[in-house]
Amino acid sequence: CVVNGRPFVRLGMVGKGGSSQVYRVMDADYRIFALKKVHIDTHTDARMVEMYTNEITLLRKLEGNPHIVQLVDAQVDTGQHCIQLLMEIGETDLSKVLQSQKRSAEGTASPAGTLPSGLGQNFVRFLWQQMLEAVDAIHKENIVHGDLKPANFLLVKGMLKLIDFGIAKAIQSDETTNIVRESQVGTLNYMSPEALLDTGGGGAGDRPVIKLGRASDVWSLGCILYQMVYGRPPFAHLRVVAKL
């Protein structure tokens, strides 16, 4: 694969979702990166193209921040029908860490200082501080992430970094921003109450349009902290209807 004329060797797929795939790639100097490749065609929704170009814009704005995943290069090529984002690669995400620790803790005696989730108190403090610093960094840049969840915190060489700015938006003059979601259900356990309210309008067809501010990200952070302590999100025991 090639990004802006620079060749890479594809080593394998890291993940995929919808029209995008993320690959582990290597350049000519044997450096490893993550390459997000989005396929676009005449049937691709303009909203989707805008979502990924918006992600490129925000990552460039946040360039150099140690708590945000770094964008190395990007290419929007309508002729080749694809959008490519070349980023630093991580070892794992917080969601996988939480799942692994929970499985390890089940049915075994936990040492002193271990929380119900299976994580140690000091480890939770370490992760929590880095999460707060990451979200504080984007809020200082007047950006609302809008989709904070464990899977969107990536461990890169021991540092927790915030990823996936696909639906993130710059805050407007009233301290909120309109965010369009493809679906409200995917990350329901971490959504703030206002994130479930469709304000309508925005020219997004039948997709929900939600007005969010910094407080919505703070709510999501609280849900993640609860999970790091107790092993599940605070409302995981409720059925979908009860959550709504």
TrEMBL record:
SMART domains: S_TKc. Gene3D superfamilies: Phosphorylase Kinase, domain 1, Transferase(Phosphotransferase) domain 1. It comes from Phaeomonas parva. GO terms for cellular component: kinetochore; nucleus. PANTHER family: DUAL SPECIFICITY PROTEIN KINASE TTK, MIXED LINEAGE PROTEIN KINASE. This is Protein kinase domain-containing protein. Residues 8-244 form the Protein kinase domain. It holds the Pfam family Pkinase. Belongs to the protein kinase superfamily. InterPro entries: Kinase-like_dom_sf, Prot_kinase_dom, Protein_kinase_ATP_BS, Ser/Thr_kinase_AS. ATP binds at residue 36. One of its GO terms (biological process) is protein localization to kinetochore. GO terms for molecular function: ATP binding; protein serine/threonine kinase activity; protein serine/threonine/tyrosine kinase activity. Keywords: ATP-binding, Kinase, Nucleotide-binding, Serine/threonine-protein kinase, Transferase. SUPFAM superfamilies: Protein kinase-like (PK-like).
